[in-house]
Amino acid sequence: MTHTRQNPISRVARRAISLAVVTVAASAGIALAAPAAMAGSGAEPTSGSTSKTAPIPAVAPAKPGTNCTVDAKLVPSCNVLWGAAAGGFSETPRDQALREWEAKSGRTASIYHTYHRGDEMFPTKAEIAMANETGKPRILFTNWKVGYNTKWGKVAAGEQNARIDKLSAHIKANYGKDKFFMAVHHEPENDVSTDPKSQMTAKDYANMVRYTIKRMKANGVTNVVFVMAYMNVEKWNDSPWWADLYPGNDVIDWVAVDSYVNAQPKGFHAGDFTYLMNRTTGKSKFNGWYNWALTTNKPIMVAEWAVYECKKACSPAEKAKIHAKIVEQMKAMPAIKAMVAFDTASDQQGLDMRIDSTSQSLASFKKIAADPIFNVNIGR
């Protein structure tokens, strides 16, 4: 999306009005067959969070490697790619916002995350300049809402062929060599309709993504690595249409989650990084997003993550406490191959997810950024 990016929090609230509360998801076998609905509500309801943390498999934690590079699908041979989407919900240009974020955090982002929709052509000149900056190479990660102002089913039926073909030609002419990430309509869950005539069902979404990717490849686009980016809202993870969203392993290269936690003690979605990745109601057969993602055998990306600052008065140490455990907890989930932070001073709910929301927050975040687990040579 663009810097006016629609916030998953407000969309959760709107969708709660239009969708009935769903029942427990289908059987575990079905739930494991395809990707989950993902992550990131930060809305603060009147009651606290009732979700829990599902246990993750006990495996040897990741250890920092040396001379790590990326392969044809941008998967690091060791360590974890580090990135950010900075400047959300503001008028600050994305490239300027990222440079400011890098200066604060103390590390150059290996992934530069931006958002586009409809007929916008990308990568833009500014994005290409960021990718090719001398001494600071970056991998582009673009989200594209190809179905902007139309329906998913119509895109899958060919209505937006001209839009897809125009972007394909733009990529080949302007950025046809270096590999970059793309998510075709990330966070679809809040837009799903259960009306089979709506052309906005989960199956319509999967068909739209498959159609778009296959058409781009048929057009000769060879340097895009396709990412499936979901939210992590428990009611959608449990929904009966959840499994239908996934377009298929043959067209998806990475699976990703946009997920947030709250520093407010006892606040909605308050918790640590393990909770951010693997929360569940505890009453359903959905056993946490990270656990599900392992079943795809795809590299895992945390495509958006942040810790919301306390909305009410609390100790400035609360957010820092969460930051202090993130690297250790992430290393216990070694299938995670990329971490991309989202940073804004105020989202549509007025919530602050800046890394420097307090001095304690910044100091603790800089320790995350300095960890050698994020040393990866992207080869540019």
TrEMBL record:
<feature type="active site" description="Nucleophile">
    <location>
        <position position="304"/>
    </location>
</feature>
<keyword id="KW-0378">Hydrolase</keyword>
<feature type="domain" description="GH26">
    <location>
        <begin position="60"/>
        <end position="371"/>
    </location>
</feature>
<comment type="similarity">
    <text>Belongs to the glycosyl hydrolase 26 family.</text>
</comment>
<keyword id="KW-0732">Signal</keyword>
<dbReference type="InterPro" id="IPR022790">
    <property type="entry name" value="GH26_dom"/>
</dbReference>
<dbReference type="GO" id="GO:0004553">
    <property type="term" value="F:hydrolase activity, hydrolyzing O-glycosyl compounds"/>
</dbReference>
<protein>
    <recommendedName>
        <fullName>GH26 domain-containing protein</fullName>
    </recommendedName>
</protein>
<feature type="signal peptide">
    <location>
        <begin position="1"/>
        <end position="33"/>
    </location>
</feature>
<keyword id="KW-0326">Glycosidase</keyword>
<feature type="active site" description="Proton donor">
    <location>
        <position position="187"/>
    </location>
</feature>
<dbReference type="InterPro" id="IPR017853">
    <property type="entry name" value="GH"/>
</dbReference>
